[in-house]
């Protein structure tokens, strides 16, 4: 794997840290700004709003900008947003800063996925993308706990300042390690938007929203589930979340090779196993050791789904994969909001603290059904190739443009 993938992993590490560290610092932020903890919790939604809006918006605005330059621009926005978060004097400006910090999230991952897949041979494209995603999973093991501890000891502003420093390091790494990748002659926002009309792209995004909603329905309430049902102390939950991150990292390492070999079967198996693991967690949650084992497995299975969904969208978008790859992360954040909302509904209805696991299992099964429907639509054998980018001077459909990944060759079971 090229060293340039390390630069993309650093970007993903910074994104993963800033996305989740806010959750661990809500009491400190609330105290510092004189608001309630639930009010401070809206800052998590502010970041998600930035992701949902920014992914298609910034990807479209940068549709003609060479990938390396676009990555540098987006990383600069990321640094400015987190620096503004650290310096915000009041809640309103912090809310605005979190929206701004979330804007480049999806575009960075989308452009990064396309760049990563073009750095390697076509039969290793999924492994390259999963290597970038490793930065996100490692953030759950190292970045989020470290950022939470820093914010608790020195103040929440220091956590966002540290993320801004990570962003500066990512900027330097991108500048030094990422090669120039020119856009094709037919690149542009309309070219990207036309690819989004593909029914398989739309179905893939819906699959991501519904299926990943199952993961977030559980993850959003993991801490209260553990503290209420296992008697685990608040101080110990950070270690449990780090254990969840270990599972995600292991799942990401497995996802790349499996996706390169068989994309759709990996996706089907991931959703089916995730639903099974969430049901198992429902019955194991009151017993600490079994619960920790199943939690680690759930983390791994959630990551196992991420890479095949990303590669599937890139495949079905043909010669304009960037918008589809970026929009996938808008879908993840919609899944975050929807899964958390549904999990909260069943708790409020009196179904018990473990009930979000069953909601998550139902959503994972719904995601599996949607994925199977997508496979059924490909039953005529007209599967799509993964086209990781357009070479300059070649138009849509030109064979010189095409760099198919073995994970999605033209076979019915792609």
From TrEMBL:
<dbReference type="InterPro" id="IPR036259">
    <property type="entry name" value="MFS_trans_sf"/>
</dbReference>
<feature type="transmembrane region" description="Helical">
    <location>
        <begin position="201"/>
        <end position="223"/>
    </location>
</feature>
<feature type="compositionally biased region" description="Low complexity">
    <location>
        <begin position="405"/>
        <end position="414"/>
    </location>
</feature>
<feature type="transmembrane region" description="Helical">
    <location>
        <begin position="235"/>
        <end position="255"/>
    </location>
</feature>
<dbReference type="InterPro" id="IPR050189">
    <property type="entry name" value="MFS_Efflux_Transporters"/>
</dbReference>
<keyword id="KW-0472">Membrane</keyword>
<keyword id="KW-1133">Transmembrane helix</keyword>
<feature type="transmembrane region" description="Helical">
    <location>
        <begin position="70"/>
        <end position="89"/>
    </location>
</feature>
<feature type="transmembrane region" description="Helical">
    <location>
        <begin position="359"/>
        <end position="377"/>
    </location>
</feature>
<dbReference type="InterPro" id="IPR020846">
    <property type="entry name" value="MFS_dom"/>
</dbReference>
<feature type="transmembrane region" description="Helical">
    <location>
        <begin position="95"/>
        <end position="116"/>
    </location>
</feature>
<feature type="transmembrane region" description="Helical">
    <location>
        <begin position="42"/>
        <end position="63"/>
    </location>
</feature>
<feature type="transmembrane region" description="Helical">
    <location>
        <begin position="334"/>
        <end position="353"/>
    </location>
</feature>
<feature type="transmembrane region" description="Helical">
    <location>
        <begin position="267"/>
        <end position="285"/>
    </location>
</feature>
<keyword id="KW-1003">Cell membrane</keyword>
<feature type="region of interest" description="Disordered">
    <location>
        <begin position="387"/>
        <end position="414"/>
    </location>
</feature>
<dbReference type="InterPro" id="IPR011701">
    <property type="entry name" value="MFS"/>
</dbReference>
<keyword id="KW-0812">Transmembrane</keyword>
<feature type="domain" description="Major facilitator superfamily (MFS) profile">
    <location>
        <begin position="2"/>
        <end position="379"/>
    </location>
</feature>
<feature type="transmembrane region" description="Helical">
    <location>
        <begin position="291"/>
        <end position="313"/>
    </location>
</feature>
<feature type="transmembrane region" description="Helical">
    <location>
        <begin position="158"/>
        <end position="180"/>
    </location>
</feature>
<dbReference type="Pfam" id="PF07690">
    <property type="entry name" value="MFS_1"/>
</dbReference>
<feature type="transmembrane region" description="Helical">
    <location>
        <begin position="128"/>
        <end position="146"/>
    </location>
</feature>
<protein>
    <submittedName>
        <fullName>MFS transporter</fullName>
    </submittedName>
</protein>
């Amino acid at each position: 794997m090229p060293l340039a993938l390390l630069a993309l992993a650093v970007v993903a590490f910074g994104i993963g840290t800033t996305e989740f560290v806010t959750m661990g610092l809500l009491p400190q932020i609330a105290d510092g700004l004189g608001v309630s903890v639930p009010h401070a919790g809206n800052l998590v939604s502010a970041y998600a709003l930035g992701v949902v809006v920014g992914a298609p918006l910034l990807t479209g605005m940068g549709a003609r900008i060479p990938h390396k330059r676009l990555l540098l621009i987006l990383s600069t926005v990321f640094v400015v947003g987190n620096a503004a978060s650290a310096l915000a004097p009041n809640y309103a400006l912090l809310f605005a800063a979190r929206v701004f910090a979330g804007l480049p999230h999806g575009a960075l991952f989308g452009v990064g996925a396309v760049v990563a897949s073009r750095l390697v041979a076509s039969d290793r494209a999924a492994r390259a993308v999963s290597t970038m995603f490793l930065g996100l999973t490692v953030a759950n093991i190292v970045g989020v706990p470290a950022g939470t501890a820093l914010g608790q000891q020195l103040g929440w502003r220091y956590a966002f300042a540290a993320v801004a420093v990570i962003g500066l390091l990512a900027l330097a790494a991108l500048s030094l390690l990422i090669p120039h990748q020119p856009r094709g002659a037919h690149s542009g926002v309309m070219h990207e938007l036309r690819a989004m009309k593909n029914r398989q792209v739309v179905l893939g995004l819906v699959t991501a929203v519904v299926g990943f909603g199952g993961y977030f329905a559980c993850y959003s309430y993991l801490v209260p589930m553990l503290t209420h049902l296992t008697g685990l102390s608040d101080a110990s939950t950070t270690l449990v979340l780090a254990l969840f991150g270990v599972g995600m990292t292991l799942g990401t390492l497995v996802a790349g090779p499996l996706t390169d070999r068989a994309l759709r079967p990996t996706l089907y198996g991931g959703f089916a196993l995730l639903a099974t693991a969430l049901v198992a967690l429902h019955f194991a949650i009151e017993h600490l050791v079994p619960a920790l084992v199943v939690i680690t497995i759930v983390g791994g299975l959630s990551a196992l789904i991420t890479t095949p969904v990303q590669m599937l969208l890139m495949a079905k978008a043909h010669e304009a994969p960037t918008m589809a790859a970026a929009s996938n992360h808008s879908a993840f954040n919609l899944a975050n909001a929807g899964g958390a909302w549904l999990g909260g509904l069943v708790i409020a209805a009196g179904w018990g603290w473990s009930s979000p696991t069953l909601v998550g299992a139902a959503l994972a099964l719904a995601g599996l059904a949607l994925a199977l429907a997508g496979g059924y639509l490909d039953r005529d054998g007209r599967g799509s190739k993964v086209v990781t980018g357009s070479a300059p001077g070649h138009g849509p459909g030109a064979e010189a443009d095409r760099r198919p990944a073995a994970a999605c060759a033209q076979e019915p079971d792609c």
